[in-house]
Write a structure and sequence with these properties.
475 residues, alpha/beta
């Protein structure tokens, strides 16, 4: 079985060793390795390398860019088995899910690579002797910040979007789960990417973001993470007139209409809630179930939740691993205690498992009142909240009641319900009768406090380009 890699920075096509901080295995709290922290000199070198690399990469034919990017995706696929192990070790998710994350990241890279050959401009009809042309050009050097919950696929989205559009990138990946990004960058290096096009740094997040974002070399900021940090980085970007892509937290509602199959939708929901131990910004969390099927749905949800096997992600029988750190355990305990004190009842779970590693039961709470903290604060853990509603209108109102708007879900067989849900639920991504919020070819992002800008799809590549109008009068 593959071991945990020796982590390094990647700057200007070269690998650099640095001192740093420990990387901890959430399953047993052992130290896996050391994540190197970039110095100010490293960051300056990364800025210079990315600026120099941009002059090469922007002038590389889109077909050639796509060839290199797709070669990197193929290398990632070939290494999926070995590279899944470090992700499971550092993040905790089951090995099968880690491998699927890598393969999903490869799909994103492939799709963006080919779409990068179709970043079209246009010719605007005008008077005789005048030609107005719109060019889509790469925006420049991108500063990208990726989170710990998806160590490979989240960096892959940012790298693929930037490189496919002709930009270069400085990727500041998570210090808690660095191996996914490290192996991603290694694949691009082995694919023959020119020096400076993709640079990888780690360090104290606030220090790196506050150093990089104001630099004139940086032309775009892209961040995936919490709303408070996102608002800070968005303000910093705005102060320096930098556009930004902000993919921030969510608190996804799930509306279960009374014409849905309560047992089938509950089973799907329990499995979806267990994915990545609920540590997903699009995780289904607030379930609003019409009264006619409420009891059946709640009972079936609890039964399925108790069947989910929890354990070390390296065990092939494991379906849900530990949460990523002790902060998530503390949050779960606090939110569950508050909800119970306000009248919620436990249907399944409710407790930490053991005292070594960060394991917690998949927890289902029913009859959760609106004033419970968990109904307003994103749990980011294996916690499902079920509440009864009388009508679809009431469910939509409750779904829209928070400042979040990333993903939402619904189960219904009614075309009328689908129309109402599509028109009125305030989210960037709405999935009906399934729990997949995005695909490689579709745009992904939020509304309200969940952010702005898009990753994925044609719309995602648009964010990495600028529109230039060229007006030419023929003399």
């Amino acid at each position: 079985m593959a071991s945990y890699p020796e982590l390094k920075l990647h700057i200007g096509g070269e690998w650099r060793r640095r001192d740093g901080a420990p990387v901890v295995n959430p399953a047993d709290e052992s130290v896996l390795g050391t994540v190197p922290h970039a110095t100010r000199t490293d960051l300056d070198d990364a800025l210079a390398a990315a600026a120099k690399g941009f002059q090469v990469w922007r002038n590389t034919a889109p077909a050639k860019r796509a060839e290199i990017i797709q070669r990197a995706a193929q290398i990632c696929r070939e290494r999926a088995e070995e590279n899944a192990v470090p992700i499971t070790l550092e993040q905790g998710k089951p090995l099968a899910q880690a491998k699927l994350e890598i393969l999903r990241g490869c799909d994103i890279i492939d799709w963006d690579a080919t779409e990068g050959r179709r970043v079209y401009g246009r010719v605007i009809p005008s008077e005789p002797g005048m030609r107005n042309t719109v060019l889509r050009q790469p925006i420049g050097v991108v500063a990208a910040f990726s989170p710990w919950n998806f160590p490979m696929s989240s960096p892959a989205r940012k790298v693929a979007g930037a490189l496919s559009s002709g930009c270069t990138i400085i990727l500041k990946a998570s210090e808690e789960t660095p191996a996914g990004a490290y192996n991603l960058v290694r694949a691009f290096a082995d694919a023959g990417l020119p020096p400076g096009v993709l640079n990888l740094v780690f360090g104290v997040p606030s220090e790196i973001s506050e150093y990089l974002i104001p630099k004139p070399t940086i032309r775009l900021v892209t961040f995936t993470g919490s709303i408070p940090v996102g608002k800070h980085l968005a303000a910093l970007s705005g102060a320096h007139m930098k556009p930004a892509i902000m993919e921030l937290g969510g608190h996804a509602p799930v509306i279960v209409c009374d014409d849905a199959d309560p047992e089938a939708s509950a089973a799907t929901s329990a499995v979806g809630k267990s994915r990545n131990s609920g540590q997903v910004c699009i995780s289904p969390t607030r379930f609003f179930v019409q009264e006619a099927i409420y009891d059946r749905f709640t009972t079936a949800f609890g039964e399925k939740a108790r069947q989910i096997k929890i354990g070390d992600g390296l065990d092939p029988q494991t379906q849900m691993g530990p949460v990523a750190n002790d902060r998530r355990l503390a949050a779960m305990e606090t939110l569950i205690a508050d909800a119970r004190a306000k009248g919620a009842r436990i249907v399944a779970g409710g407790n930490r498992i053991g005292n070594r590693g960060y394991f917690h039961e998949l927890t289902v709470l029913a009859d959760v009142p609106d004033d419970a903290r968990a109904m307003h604060e994103e749990p980011f853990g294996p916690l499902a909240l079920i509440s009864p509603v009388k009508t679809l209108d009431e469910a939509i109102d409750k779904a829209n009641s928070l400042p979040y708007g990333l993903a939402g879900y619904a189960f219904t067989r009614s075309a009328r319900n689908v129309d109402q849900l599509a028109e009125r639920v305030e989210v960037g991504n709405l999935s009906i009768n399934h729990l997949t919020a995005s695909f490689a070819e579709t745009p992904f992002g939020g509304v309200k406090d969940s952010g702005y800008g898009r990753e994925g799809g044609t719309e995602g590549l648009d964010c990495y380009t600028v529109a230039k109008n060229v007006s030419h009068r023929v003399l």
